[in-house]
Amino acid sequence: VFWELMLIPSYFMIKLWGGGAERHYAALKFVIYTLLGSVFMLVGIALLD
Please, are residues 29 and 10 in contact by the beta-carbon 8 Å criterion? Predict the structure, then answer.
């Protein structure tokens, strides 16, 4: 749960204080990759039981 909550401030830090013109794209890509990793981790934990 806290791993997912970390995405909100990280997204805004990248989007607002990131360098370059493509910081919005970088922030969005970061969120998508992190969410995909979380889904795989959740499936892996569910398969352990």
Answer: no
Furthest C-alpha separation in the chain: 45
DSSP per residue over 1-49, as a string? Answer: -HHHHTHHHHHHHHHHH--STTHHHHHHHHHHHHHHHHHHHHHHHHHH-
Task: Name the residue ranges covered by the structural domains of the chain.
Answer: 2-48
Place of tokens 């569910």: 46
- On whether the pTM is more than 0.85, the answer is no
Q: How many CA atoms lie within 13 A of 38 on its CB side?
A: 13
Report whether pLDDT(28) > 80. Answer: yes
